[in-house]
């Protein structure tokens, strides 16, 4: 009862924002529900005279609901099918992830970016956009403004990729297989991968959507080693800077462990689509709801004023991933 008393108002507010954002995301998939939710949340927080009654529920949604969304995401991962069909793309995936993380690290040093901004943009660009940011943010204790900024940067280049890549692939003479790999490895968010692959299929009368989606899902598995590595890094940093003893329980991303268990359960028990599909949709909706909370905790004016360096970092990561994806295809003889 105390939980409901403290959190109900904020949870309801996030839900009210999430529902129309979800349907708008379905209508305009190249933008997606999470971006609509962040925008609505940022606008609404300018209007609210007092956020006090909503604060506890908003904070719970932006942290715990976000972690729950990552766990449910695991039910969409049949590891056997993904690795069997996506193993051809592994060298390209590893190369693009490494490229993005290295670029983000170098620009973090050169531009004196906030560490969390560099990590979120680097991971979001290289792995799977909003889902990767959702998984990484709790591990590095990122603020809601840092998450909102990173999501906004990823969104910008998702839209550009979805609009540009089909024409670019045609100009470069990519095969259907080649474009599936290109879209799956060089576009961040699932909705944008789907939009680009669908546009390609419409022009070339092919079926690259399935292969691009499998490559994208294979990329998503990188959430596991990256979040665990970040947890270890943060733990070591905490031991060096704090006099108190290091707490594994506080730093270890147990929700990622549950994500792994959900993936393993889906794989071992061959859970049917009738079971996993609703859980995947629930994951997507919870991410939209969490992004509404993050928007409510974000100052849009400050976000715009401080957005130059993250946007430049995102553009460099995006350009690096694009070039490496195409270059690796050429080296491997897939192009």
Question: What is this structure's SSE topology?
Answer:
Layout: H1 2-27, H2 33-47, H3 52-73, H4 79-86, H5 90-111, H6 115-126, H7 130-140, H8 144-172, H9 176-186, H10 190-204, H11 209-220, H12 223-241, H13 248-251, H14 254-268, H15 273-296, H16 300-305, H17 308-332
Summarize the structure.
With 335 residues, the chain is mainly α.
Structure explained in plain terms:
- This protein has 17 helices and no strands.
- The chain is mainly α.
- The longest helix is centred in the middle third of the chain and has 29 residues, at 144-172.
Number of distinct beta strands: 0
The helix/strand series, from N terminus to C terminus, equals HHHHHHHHHHHHHHHHH
Q: Which of globular, elongated, flat, extended, rod-shaped describes the shape? A: globular
Overall pLDDT score: 89
- Please give the oligomerization state of what you see: single chain
Supply Rg. 19 Å
Helical stretch tally:
17
- Biggest beta sheet attributes: none
Structural class: mainly alpha
Helix content: over 70%
* Uncertain stretches of 5 or more adjacent residues: none
Instruction: Give the terminus-to-terminus CA distance.
Output: 60 Å
Question: What proportion of the residues form beta strands (DSSP E)?
Answer: under 5%
């Amino acid at each position: 009862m105390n939980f409901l008393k403290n959190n109900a108002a904020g949870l309801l507010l996030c839900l009210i924002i999430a529902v129309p954002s979800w349907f708008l995301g379905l209508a305009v998939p190249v933008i997606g529900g999470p971006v609509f939710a962040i925008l609505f949340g940022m606008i609404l927080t300018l209007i609210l005279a007092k956020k006090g009654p909503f604060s506890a529920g908003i904070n719970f949604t932006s942290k715990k609901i976000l972690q729950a969304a990552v766990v449910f995401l695991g039910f969409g991962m049949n590891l056997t099918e993904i690795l069997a069909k996506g193993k051809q793309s592994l060298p390209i995936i590893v190369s693009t992830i490494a490229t993005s993380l290295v670029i983000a690290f170098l620009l973090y040093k050169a531009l004196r970016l906030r560490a969390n901004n560099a990590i979120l943009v680097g991971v979001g660009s290289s792995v799977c956009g909003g889902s990767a940011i959702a998984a990484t943010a709790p591990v590095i204790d990122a603020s809601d403004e840092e998450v909102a900024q990173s999501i906004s940067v990823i969104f910008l280049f998702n839209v550009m990729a979805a609009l540009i890549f089909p024409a670019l692939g045609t100009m470069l003479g990519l095969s259907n297989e080649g474009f599936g790999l290109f879209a799956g490895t060089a576009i961040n968010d699932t909705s944008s991968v789907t939009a680009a692959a669908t546009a390609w299929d419409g022009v070339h009368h092919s079926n690259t959507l399935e292969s691009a989606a499998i490559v994208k899902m294979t990329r998503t598995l990188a959430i596991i080693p990256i979040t665990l590595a970040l947890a270890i890094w943060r733990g070591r940093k905490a031991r060096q800077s704090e006099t108190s003893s290091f707490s594994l329980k506080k730093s270890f991303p147990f929700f990622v462990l549950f994500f792994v268990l959900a993936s393993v359960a889906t794989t071992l028990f061959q859970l049917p689509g009738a079971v996993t599909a609703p859980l995947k949709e629930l994951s997507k909706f919870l991410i939209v709801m969490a992004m509404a909370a993050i928007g409510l905790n974000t100052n849009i004016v400050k976000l715009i004023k401080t957005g130059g360096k993250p946007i430049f970092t995102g553009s460099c990561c995006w350009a690096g991933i694009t070039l490496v994806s195409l270059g690796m295809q050429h080296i491997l003889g897939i192009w």
